[in-house]
């Protein structure tokens, strides 16, 4: 088990290096060709007092502190709230960077899903899941299967590392749990030679990833109709595979067929417990997708993702209130300096 984890971590660093090369020589030129600029959110007006509070005390001042700062600076409370919102958004990545990240994940997702399909169509357990348990645990580990597993494990380790450097979203804890359970499942199934059923699980969960990242890229490029179409396709594939195929096909074989052929054994309980946790997360994300779809039906386009990590405000709040010292900020490209950074859809979601 230790060897598999170490191998996965070392490969994850390789994946990270590949990402930076891909971003520089492939994704960035594509983004520039699509006229996606590196503009980020509005830049907060320089202010030493507010900057000190932001960096040393709190990024989310309460009402009492806001009133104190208002008196100290002779600014109204709304202007100070807007300054803190802009300052928080200032630390978040630009549309260009987001596009590059999505293009990398799209390329990986498309490649790994294609590889999984090509690998599995030659195996007997794709067509009859009972073959996952015949002659268990004395099943050969082929080079193709080993490569598939290590590639998946390295990707999830890279997600685990990058999650702590990326902007934290509302579902940070859920995503952390997902990555942790995925790494445990991949490692545990590899060590216990449950790799056959493991390949089914991996390929099934990879099926919707490329569609999601493609929808996000379309959103960043401001191709709203394409984004909406890709999101509908993603939602259909995601809900069908994870709420339909996964429990009826995969959980059926891990819970019942394995019990029938192999019988209960200690790792059986651990493995199925982890799979049930994954299924619980699948239900949670399916709920979010359905929620976004319902908003899309009512508004005529995919609505803003509840997990979005960019803070926005109403037009009234963004307009400068009259009276006290004005608090100005530049705008570009007609989107408050964001070049489409205010995501308009579920395209903001990450799997």
Automatic annotation (TrEMBL):
Enzyme type, top EC level:
transferase
Predominant location: endoplasmic reticulum
* Pathway(s) the chain acts in: Lipid metabolism; sphingolipid metabolism; Sphingolipid metabolism
DNA-binding annotation, residue ranges on this chain: 52-95
Q: Which residues form the TLC domain?
A: 94-298
The alphabetized UniProt keywords are: DNA-binding, Endoplasmic reticulum, Homeobox, Lipid biosynthesis, Lipid metabolism, Membrane, Nucleus, Transferase, Transmembrane, Transmembrane helix
Q: Please list the residue ranges that the record marks as compositionally biased, kind Low complexity.
A: 328-340
GO CC, alphabetical: endoplasmic reticulum membrane; nucleus
What molecular function does GO assign, one term?
Answer: sphingosine N-acyltransferase activity
- Quote the EC number: 2.3.1.24
Q: Which Pfam families match?
A: Homeodomain, TRAM_LAG1_CLN8
Membrane keyword on record: yes
InterPro entries recorded for this chain?
HD, Homeodomain-like_sf, Lag1/Lac1-like, TLC-dom
Bilayer topology: Multi-pass membrane protein
PROSITE patterns documented for this protein: HOMEOBOX_2, TLC
Superkingdom of origin? Eukaryota
Region entry Disordered: which residue ranges?
305-340
User: What is this protein called in UniProt?
Assistant: sphingosine N-acyltransferase
Gene symbol here is: CERS6
């Amino acid at each position: 088990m230790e060897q598999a984890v170490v191998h996965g971590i070392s490969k994850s660093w390789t994946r990270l290096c590949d990402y930076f090369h891909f971003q520089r020589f492939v994704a960035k030129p594509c983004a520039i060709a699509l006229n996606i600029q590196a503009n980020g959110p509005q830049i907060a007006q320089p202010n030493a007092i507010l900057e000190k509070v932001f960096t040393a005390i709190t990024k989310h001042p309460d009402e009492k502190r806001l009133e104190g700062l208002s008196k100290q600076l002779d600014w109204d409370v709304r202007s100070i709230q807007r300054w803190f919102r802009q300052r928080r958004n200032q630390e978040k990545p630009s549309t260009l960077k987001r596009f590059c990240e999505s293009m990398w994940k799209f390329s990986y997702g498309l490649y790994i899903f294609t590889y999984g399909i090509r690998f599995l169509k030659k195996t007997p357990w794709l067509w009859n899941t009972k073959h996952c348990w015949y002659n268990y645990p004395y099943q050969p580990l082929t080079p193709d299967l080993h490569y598939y597993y290590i590639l998946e494990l390295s990707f999830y380790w890279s997600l685990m590392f990058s999650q702590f450097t990326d902007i934290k979203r509302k579902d940070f804890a859920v995503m952390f749990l997902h990555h942790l359970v995925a790494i445990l499942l991949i490692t545990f199934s590899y060590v216990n030679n449950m790799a056959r059923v493991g390949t089914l699980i991996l390929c099934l969960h990879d099926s919707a990833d490329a569609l999601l990242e493609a929808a996000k890229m379309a959103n960043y490029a401001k191709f709203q109709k394409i984004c909406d179409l890709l999101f509908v396709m993603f939602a259909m594939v995601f809900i069908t595979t994870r709420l339909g195929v996964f429990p009826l096909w995969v959980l059926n074989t891990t819970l019942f067929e394995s019990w029938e052929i192999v019988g209960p054994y200690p790792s059986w309980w651990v493995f199925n417990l982890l799979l049930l946790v994954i299924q619980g997360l699948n239900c949670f994300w399916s709920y979010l997708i359905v929620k976004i779809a319902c908003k899309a039906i009512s508004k005529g386009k995919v609505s803003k993702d509840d997990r979005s990590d960019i803070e926005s405000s109403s037009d009234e709040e963004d307009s400068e209130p009259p009276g006290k010292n004005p608090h100005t900020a530049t705008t570009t490209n007609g989107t408050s300096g964001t070049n489409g950074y205010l995501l308009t859809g579920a395209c903001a979601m990450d799997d």
